[in-house]
Every structure is written in C-alpha cells, then in structure tokens.
Design a protein that fits this description.
Layout: E1 2-5, E2 10-19, E3 22-24, E4 29-31, E5 34-45, E6 48-51, E7 57-63, H1 69-94
Antiparallel strand pairs: 1-2, 2-5, 3-4, 5-6, 5-7
Length: 106
C-alpha cells in the first residue's frame, strides 16, 4: 500500500487487493473475481482510520479464476500504469490538493 500526503488532514491510499467477486449488495453490482486497484482518501483520528462512503474508486486490473502469487505480482505491475489516472480522479472528485505530483508511486 502506498500513502500520499495531501494539503489537509487527509491522505490518499493506493493499493492492489484481491476480491472474490460476486454480488455487491451495497451497490447492486455483480463484481468480477480478480485484482482491483483501490484509491481512497482517508482521515486519521484518535481512534484510527476513517473512510467516507463513496469518496474512493476501484478498478479491475486483472480478472482471474483463483488467487495466486504470480497473478498478484502481475496485477501490481499492471496497477502502476493506472494508478495516476485513479489518483487524479479521486483528487478532482474530493477537491484534494497533493503536496507534490507523484510520478511513480507503486
């Protein structure tokens, strides 16, 4: 996981995670099984991390039939290509200004 500092009390976390897929009853969408790139703004408080609903995004990077170390490594490499796009989207959507413009964060 990569953490990028912002100009306010938030940070933006970027991470590749595996998902079993299936029905997401919260959003009503059938999700595919595979590795997703997550980009989420987070606030830290006295009691730990705080996420705000609908502030982050995720994108399927690699669809797989099962979890494996080889597929995870490939997904991380593929995530490097898309992370800046997701970071820019989250920053625009949530009016976040970064301390710097990262060129390669994963």
């Amino acid at each position: 996981m990569k953490t990028i500092e912002t100009n306010d009390e938030r940070v933006v976390e970027i991470e590749v995670k595996y998902s079993l897929g299936g029905m997401n009853y919260f959003t009503g969408v059938l999700e595919r099984r595979g590795y997703y790139l997550h980009c989420t703004p987070v606030r830290y408080g006295d009691r730990g991390k705080f996420y705000t609903a609908f502030t982050g995004v995720k994108e399927l990077i690699l669809e797989v039939k099962r979890k494996s170390k080889k597929a995870e490594q490939k997904a991380k490499e593929m995530g490097v290509e898309r992370e800046q796009v997701l970071l820019d989207h989250v920053c625009r959507k949530n009016k976040i200004n970064l301390h710097y413009k990262p060129s390669n964060i994963i």
